[in-house]
Amino acid sequence: AQSVTQPDIHITVSEGASLELRCNYSYGATPYLFWYVQSPGQGLQLLLKYFSGDTLVQGIKGFEAEFKRSQSSFNLRKPSVHWSDAAEYFCAVGRVMYSGGGADGLTFGKGTHLIIQP
Amino acid sequence: GAVVSQHPSRVICKSGTSVKIECRSLDFQATTMFWYRQFPKQSLMLMATSNEGSKATYEQGVEKDKFLINHASLTLSTLTVTSAHPEDSSFYICSAMTSGQETQYFGPGTRLLVL
């Protein structure tokens, strides 16, 4: 069974500073990897995803993530955070569907709560 | 595009009653919908996978008789929590996906409180 580990429950970063949120996964094959952000009262918003190809993926809001197979990691980065980035961030891995292609239900990490200091 | 709605956004019910939550894909056809449960300050746990016109597939440990899922059309799936109890209080989130695609689009969630 697949699993996702987000080792940092909380991270505090000063506004304008760089950010890296860690994510490690366990999966028997090449996974589909996702980063979602959840703000209070809001639904999950997809930041970026990795399926194959270039291991450095660009997402929305200036976020990027790098897939490192040797480390089973998919860390999320942003060079300069804004106060509006304060939210809960979830890394998720998708199971490959065996028929028809696409991905099955997602396994989520426990999330990292990002706090932005002024 | 790819908007998913849920209704209601929050519901309070008495113990022993049933509650129905709707999940709709507003601008695309969702051949597959998923239902997740999120406990306070915790992660989302996949409950079941629902394919249009088929019976839902439940994850291990999820009671299919308690959490009834119907996916009768390409834009609507419903989750009915039957004979709800306080321990069923949670945040229920649906997502929708088109066949052959890898990205799920999430609804805003429904907060259920069972008294």
What count of helical segments of chain A does DSSP give? 0
How many whole angstroms does the radius of gyration of chain A measure? Answer: 14 Å
What general outline of chain B do the C-alpha atoms trace?
A: globular
Number of helices of chain B: 0
What is the CA-atom radius of gyration of chain B, in angstroms?
Answer: 13 Å
Shape of chain A: globular
Keywords, separated by commas or semicolons:
heterodimer, A: 118 residues, mainly beta, six-stranded mixed sheet, four-stranded antiparallel sheet, 12 strands, B: 115 residues, seven-stranded mixed sheet, 0% helix
Tell me the layout of helices and strands.
The complex is a heterodimer of chains A (118) and B (115).
Chain A lengths: L2 E3 L4 E5 L4 E3 L2 E3 L5 E7 L5 E7 L5 E3 L5 E5 L4 E6 L8 E10 L6 E6 L3 E6 L1
Chain B lengths: L3 E4 L2 E4 L5 E7 L6 E7 L5 E8 L5 E2 L8 E7 L2 E6 L8 E8 L7 E2 L3 E5 L1
Parallel strand pairs in B: 2-11
Antiparallel strand pairs in B: 1-3, 3-8, 4-5, 4-9, 5-6, 7-8, 9-10, 9-11
